[in-house]
Amino acid sequence: MTDEQLPVRADALGKKYPRGWALRECALEVPAGRVVALVGPNGAGKSTFMGLVTGLLRPTTGRIEVFGDTPNGRGMHPAVSYLTQQKPLYPQITVAETLRFGRNSNPGWDQAYAEELVARASVPLTAKVGTLSGGQRTRVALAVALGKRPRMLMLDEPLADLDPLAREVVLRTLLTECRDQGITVLLSSHVLAELEGVCDHLVLLSEGRIQLAGDVTALLDGHVLLVGPLGVPCPAPPASVVDVQTVDGAQVVHAVAHPMPPQHGWRSLRPRLGQLTLAYMRSGGSAEVAA
Amino acid sequence: MTWIVWRLQRPLFITLAAGIVLAVGGALLLRAVMTADIAAAGLADCVREGLQRGVGGACGSRQVMEFQNAWGNRMWVAQVLVLGLPVLVGVFVGAPLFAREYEQGTHALAFTQSVSRTRWMVTKFLVTVLPALTAVVVIQLAVAHWVAAAGELGPQQSGPFTAISFGVAGVSPAAYALCAYTLGMFVGAVSKRTLVGMSLALGAFVVIRFVVDGFRESLGTTTRVTFDDPFERVDKSAGLTVDGGWLTADGKEVTDTSRYDFSDCATKDSTTCYHEKGLVKSFYDIIPADAVGALHLAEASIFVALSAVFVAGTVWAVRRQV
């Protein structure tokens, strides 16, 4: 069985462009069957990481394995589907012809399934791809990506050009399909809110380095959100503090969970993923990382 | 894979088919009109015999001048068009082949299917190159068929080695087109920009043609023709003169006569005078007219070899990870 082969395993992975490092010393394992969110601000190295997985880019340092194979320039790993930010499709052909292209160029293609995905999105098969709306285009691109029956689906900012309603529909469709079929999803985004409640594994990139990585539940268990009045010192040990903010006359502190004495006026809450991630992004990686 | 390339290039194939129909139809029509003109002017013999032999006869007449005024330029334009076809193929078919995919980002779609990049590249190359070359060859033959009807009154009178006549005959147009196409494909795949690829393909192909033109003569096998009279000239229709000069009695070649003093020849018979000075024969190294096919093949092999290099370069460019 190939179960022992992780979808992605990176070791000391780095990528340098002429203008500088986009990714440095990245050690990462993407577990199978999970929905992995790759988050980080613009330019953090998300697209670079995905390019390295597809083999479109070559690592400058370190190594990367996709289902046990090293990506190369010959072609993408057959078990991986990749949807880029631009969701490229040939605009001059029809939806049906696009699916035919998918069928011709993928041995494991599931035509009925792809057609069903398109039908569920109410996209007419006879329409030219160039005439579709952004949401419809995304649904067709998704049908091509899923029709290949991949073991891992990689999506780079898949929702960036969609309106809020389309975002929700696309995301729900995506996750239903992937959860049903046990497909590993690697999803990149800089919009944290839309990933909350969606991903169960998080990788936070910042300036080309992994700042935080791990199971979402474990991450939330490992951190606390402390809210207390101004002027009263925070009970958390200073080394464990990720980020301090002042909101509406109160201190809001994200910290790594430690046993700490009760402090008058301070409440300890379970952090939310979006807030915690933002806190890490603001801190720039000064606190010790728990996972 | 073949199907999608065919489907995506459909507008191009329709254009090529329309070009073939127009060119063949036009050439046949013009040939018919021209043949009627020749018959009406009574020049049928001159088409066979040419002007030289007819001087003083019907072929030196006003009718010939009128015919050449009317048809000379038209045939010239048609031949220049055939000469330009390979460049058009390189610029408008070869260069956008990969550059446009990179520009639109659709290469990422192709690269993320289960088809290897090499197969994608080779399929695109083959499916597009065959119709393009077919169009070039068919149009070449149609124009040649028309021009041949003018015989010795047309471009044929200057022999098969002129820059235009050589470039539009034999395997040359196909070889040029293949080279221009693969060159365009290569620079397009490397630059990833359609406009840059098109400009580079145009410039580089013109340079390649120019350079090869410069040493084409040296590719042919020459035959030496000698004359006992140092002033006898080789007939132009015999072939392409590559080298020429005089031979001394012991067979030494003399091409530079500046060290000879011919001042005393003015008063004598020139032939005798040259003989006295040791220049007993004249010689010409020519590529015979009937060897033009071999020269076409020799030159074409250079363009085919360049094409192979460009195809290999395209494979590298497409498979390269940046």
UniProtKB/TrEMBL annotation, chain A:
> By its UniProt entry, which SUPFAM superfamilies does this protein fall under?
P-loop containing nucleoside triphosphate hydrolases (SSF52540)
Q: Which PROSITE patterns match?
A: ABC_TRANSPORTER_1, ABC_TRANSPORTER_2
Pfam families from the xrefs? ABC_tran (PF00005)
Identify the InterPro entries for this entry. Answer: AAA+_ATPase, ABC_transporter-like_ATP-bd, ABC_transporter-like_CS, ABC_Transporter_VariousFunc, P-loop_NTPase
* SMART domains (alphabetical): AAA
- Could you list this entry's UniProt keywords, alphabetically sorted: ATP-binding, Nucleotide-binding, Transport
Instruction: State one molecular function term (GO).
Output: ATP binding
The record's annotation in Gene3D superfamilies points to: P-loop containing nucleotide triphosphate hydrolases
Question: ABC transporter domain: from which residue to which, for each copy?
Answer: 8-232
* Name this polypeptide is given: ABC-2 type transport system ATP-binding protein
Q: Which organism is it from?
A: Umezawaea tangerina
TrEMBL record, chain B:
Kindly state which keywords UniProt assigns to this record, in alphabetical order: Membrane, Transmembrane, Transmembrane helix
Q: Output a single Gene Ontology CC term carried by this record.
A: plasma membrane
List residues traversing the bilayer. Answer: 12-34, 76-99, 120-143, 163-183, 195-212, 300-318
Q: Name one GO molecular function term.
A: ABC-type transporter activity
Q: Do the record's keywords include Nucleotide-binding?
A: no
Glycoprotein recorded as keyword: no
**Known Pfam families for this protein?**
ABC2_membrane_2 (PF12679)
Q: This protein is called what? A: ABC-2 family transporter
